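Regression check, benzoic acid case 309:
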Amino acid sequence: MDLKQLSAFVAIAESKSFSAAVVTTGLSQPSLSRLLKQLEIDLGVELIDRYHRPLQLTDAGQFFYDKISSLLTELDTVISMTQRLSSPSMALNIGFVPSVLYGLLPEIIAELKRGRPDIEVNLKDISSYQQIEALKSGEIDIGFGRFAHLDPWIQQILLRHERYVVALPKDHLLAHGGELRLLDLANNRLILYHQTRLSLPSPAITTEPLLHLFAQHGISPVMTTTVSDLQVALGLVAAGEGITLVPASLKTVRTEQISYQRLVHENATSPIYLHTLKDIVHPKIADLLQATYAVYERRGITYRRQSFL
Ligand code: BEZ
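Current build output:
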């Protein structure tokens, strides 16, 4: 049994057709058939039921696919990390979710560059769970996100908890009344925008954070709409389609159409995490953390100082 056979099997299993696997692997159809047949002979197990169109995995084939595909992904990560260890990137590639860009990210980058004028920084807008794959592939060295990740390759620091505020259309009855309770919002359409899939290999689905927060207060909003991101959610609020909760640093967005109100609940917060690989910590990450804490101190933000291992 060898790597070529395993890769051919994964490609056929994923595309459910020999001809599509020809395109993804660059191998000819006879070569793919031969590799698959040899793998089945070596295992003594039929992996693919060839009589169905599209092709179907047998039960044993499905089990083998689930295990082998994550092992091959891990192998890619190991190869890419080994190559990076021998030639580390000079630039610091930073992934971020859009909500931190509206907040302190620009100030933190300016602080970093003030202390280290020679540093080259590249910023990439990447969703929280895609950051984990981007860290493993080397596309980014560090990621700022809003979700904790349980991944054996990743370490994380919780930077702080940021208060949520309520975003309401300017003409909403609650738009000018001051501090609100979640209970006051229960009869409104709540717009949800978090992407809740955790990083692979964990197949778990997290609870949507806003629904989780309402549930903690014993409330189930009567109507919800789910959209792809924060910008779209604020667009819908501006159009009078509902309300949402956003981290407080967003409260300068679309202020002509949206009113932002404080929540009374102190636990209504969104965390900000910093993620990097466990085995490769870019040498400039310590400077980035230092710059982040310098900005927190200047602004009087409460935080607990931490460092990566
Ligand atoms: C913050 O708001 O705490 C923050 C934003 C961007 C990067 C790091 C921290």
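Comparison notes: The CA atoms of residues 79 and 137 lie 9 Å apart. The chain has a mean pLDDT of 92. No diff flagged against the previous build.
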